[in-house]
Write a structure and sequence with these properties.
Elements (H helix, E strand, L loop, with lengths): L6 H10 L19 E2 L5 E5 L4 H6 L6 H12 L8 E4 L6 E4 L2 E4 L4 H18 L3 E5 L1 H8 L5 H4 L3 E3 L5 E5 L2 H6 L4 H21 L2
Parallel strand pairs: 2-3, 2-6, 6-8
Antiparallel strand pairs: 1-3, 4-5, 7-8
The protein binds uracil (URA).
Uracil binds next to loops.
Length: 202
């Protein structure tokens, strides 16, 4: 899977993150999930955190939101094999509700602690463009004042000046019903159009 520039460093980071203790999320006893797949991708997509499904596969976005995300990646004329797909935090933040573990957004302290891994990915992959999926990714990449409703759909300066386009998180669309769903779908299509245009520019 790992070929090309930076691949060895990414492979090593993918092994080392399994032992990460920079925040308390490791205490859940679940595994960390690092990014994948193309170490020299032009586009990096950043989600929030691995879900329960991802803990089983060891790959980001393996569940229902991953299926929708695959459609978005396809709409960009790309595939998972040609992008780097990762998350703000590599362990799953969860909260117990009625005897069940539910995903919760990462705390600012957890995102900050986990940044060391995202920075390795950013440095080694060196993407031309980043697509931030949802508010946690937007805050991590653009800044704490990021608001998805205000700041999605435009290219903003991100880490080391790499442009970041933010769009809604696929899991958000999966929770919506008509007419909010159609409005969000239209917004995502516009955001993906911008990503396509920016990638086509040389
Ligand atoms: N799976 C991921 O890898 N990231 C998300 O943000 C959601 C599900």
């Amino acid at each position: 899977m790992f070929v090309g520039d930076g691949s060895r460093a990414l492979e090593r980071a993918g092994e080392e993150v399994l032992e990460c203790r920079w925040c308390d999320l490791w205490r859940s006893g679940t595994r960390a999930v690092f990014g994948s797949e193309a170490p020299n991708a032009e586009l990096m997509l950043v989600g929030e955190a691995p879900s329960e499904a991802d803990l089983r596969t060891g790959e980001p976005f393996s569940g229902p939101s991953g299926e929708l995300l695959d459609e978005w990646i396809e709409a960009l004329g790309l595939s998972r094999e040609r992008v780097w797909l990762t998350n703000v935090v590599k362990h799953r933040p969860a909260v117990e509700e009625k005897g069940r573990e539910k995903n919760r957004p990462p705390r600012a302290s957890e995102s900050k602690a986990c940044r060391v891994w995202l920075d390795i990915e950013l440095e080694q992959v060196a993407p031309r463009l980043i697509l931030a999926l949802g508010g946690s990714a937007g805050k991590s990449l653009i800044g704490k004042d990021f608001r998805i409703t205000q700041h999605r759909g435009v290219a903003l300066p991100g880490p080391s000046g790499v442009p970041v386009v933010a769009t809604f998180h696929p899991a958000y669309l999966l929770r919506l019903r008509s007419p909010e769903l159609e409005a969000a779908q239209q917004a995502v299509q516009a955001d993906l159009g911008l990503v396509r245009d920016l990638l086509a520019r040389r």
